[in-house]
């Protein structure tokens, strides 16, 4: 009861804070209750989170959410993760981050002197998210959810449904919290922007917002990157990015944030592009709302690998309402101040850095629009009354080739240019070396065998951007360590794209059936399936096997361990698959398991004592079980045996078939010849616990000379360039964080430029003059 | 560069990209249809349905083919062939979206999408 009540209470506090802070703009006395309700709001959110965590950790299965997403078997870290593995929980996590961030936002808002406006807007954002939590309440009891089943009040199921085995790894500990922190962070620059409009301080807001744009881009980007690693390392999608709607809907806000970061830089330097920056920040925030709507309303249910649950009509309408409300408020603010926003248009000269930077940013915006259109197309088509459709991955790849070229080219060019204007000669001089490096690098890829023109063009611009930024990085390392962030991030992005090109053009995949112990040649590689080993035996809810495959290549050999496991989660109907990866500098070996089969399995006959059946392939011979024999100890193992009678037209034979019992369900059969053609064995015994005499014996019959063999089928691939992707992604995140951190430390000064003479860029020294 | 020339150039580039975008959208959008429609058209389509549990799915490791039978909401059935193994979570899938084309009465899948854990949230009975 407490949890459900508290969710409503906390929501009321958020609304209260939003209203009182707004009133506090004019009348100081309102600020005191506003601060109190905001403090209570943050505390209430903390309590809510602790309540949910406590319920999960103490296995309080009275809560439908806890029952549906965790179980007693889960280890501690997965138990923690199950607190946000489902819809309600992930909303709770988002709200939790908003609450925590709220403390920081309050501090900076007061320091900025914008407390009333910023806190009113921020509280409104929190109230919106809390409203979703009211609709998808994690503290609903099972007897409320299943009221029509007549569940008794106070009923506590013995155990929970558990967590999808695909989520059982350490990635779930890091990926979702990072992503949701990123979403929460996007609201901070949004609040800055609207507060700036409210206060008519159109230049000052960006000074405060810039570092937050950087942090949001870094954290959101880091979350996306972790998702890619997860997909690659555990889920066995083979790649790191699939243009899935859920992935896309986290990419779109990121693109808008990065675009706003760049136009924000132009605004800070030149005082121009104010409208553009405000609009981009607003779009970034609305994109997080839209992404919430897409991924939680079930509208894209048929087009994504991620699971969507229909949240019910109420939540659906609420999500839609929130999105509409968020858009309406933002558009309202923009229209209110639109005319004042940019009285003097910025004079952009073609050879200035601000112009080239603006063009590059346009590329980011177009990319965001492309992803948005592609993801929303199924909905748009349905709304237009056209048949339901969905676009393929090819759509995004096709359009992102020219966009990538555009963005990387302008990234390099804009850094070569000076603010305001660049003399042509200087530009040419600076262009020379990066252009040469781009040519050389592309030539290298050509020699490696890449012939695709579009990919080569992308690679050429990536090398170009890499050369420009690498040189600035190298030159600036000693002079201005504080300004390195941007170049690190750009170097990262360029490396990432070189990696993507290499991976797209040069990765190689082949399918192989690997009989145990028998080497199979696959191109330049020799694969041998060595054997398997059961892991995680401490868990009774799964049977997890690690398969060892040796890969011999020119310079040595390495053993890879793909994993197959059966879980109670799907009643062990089929195996869950995890790839095995040998992380190597130049190109990973990636092995996705496909199936495990038995080759030449013996024919099985199942008997009770006294039952009789013909032998397969020898129908004139009828077999029956005479008696069981629990035999002698052989070292650690027990020998069990069955005496059988084989009735034949000419005579009867009695045969003792023995088997070593390695475990209750594992037997080592000892094969016995019968006639010249067959071999028989006791494969296992199916004991009848109530009446031992009614136990069943499973006999195996096989042709003489055939051996049963296990065959592992795998998909083996070579992934060149994948490490450039990870390294590049990491550098991008590090660079963004670095620049945000240095910006936070910088003295806040208001930049205006009445005469258009802005300060010289800090890194000019690193370029030839 | 004169201002007017700049606008022309910008407009041209943007227009070109939009044209490319629309043509990409048209060529990569694959419609969702029923099995009957998929058989009639023979075009690349996506079919949503459930896999028929009475007929166990088979993975032929030699050929690397996965076969199962798909049933759509009208109750029509069609055998599906997929070049690959049985996907993760196949049993859990409450519905499946298959993208591919029908060739000689078989739906040749190039992509299978599992709609998984709609599961226990609502609807699913609570074991007591």
Key words describing this protein structure:
A: about 775 residues, five-stranded antiparallel β-sheet, 20 strands, B: about 130 residues, alpha+beta, OB fold (Dihydrolipoamide Acetyltransferase, E2P), 2 domains, 7 strands
Walk me through this protein's architecture:
- The complex is a heterodimer of chains A (769) and B (128).
- Chain A is of the alpha+beta class.
- Among the domains of chain A are: 1-163, no CATH class; 603-707, no CATH class.
- Chain A has 18 helices and 20 strands.
- Chain A has helices spanning 2-23, 31-57, 64-69, 76-82, 87-112, 115-135, 142-145, 171-199, 204-235, 245-270, 274-296, 313-341, 353-383, 393-416, 424-447, 453-479, 484-506, 722-745; strands at 389-391, 508-515, 520-522, 525-535, 542-553, 556-560, 563-567, 576-578, 580-582, 587-599, 603-607, 612-615, 618-634, 637-647, 652-663, 666-669, 672-674, 678-686, 696-703, 709-720.
- In chain A, the strands form four sheets. In chain A, strands 3, 4, 5, 6, 7 and 8 form a six-stranded antiparallel beta sheet that branches. Chain A has a five-stranded antiparallel beta sheet with strand order 12-13-14-15-16, with no helix packed on it.
- In chain A, strand 3 and strand 4 (525-535) form a beta hairpin.
- The model of chain A is unreliable at 748-766 (pLDDT under 50).
- Chain B is 26% helix and 38% strand.
- By secondary structure, chain B is of the alpha+beta class.
- Chain B contains two helices and seven strands.
- Mean pLDDT of chain B is 83; it is low at 118-124.
- Chain B is elongated, with a radius of gyration of 21 Å.
- At the A-B interface, helix 13, strand 1, helix 14, strand 10 and strand 20 of A face helix 1, strand 1, strand 6 and strand 7 of B.
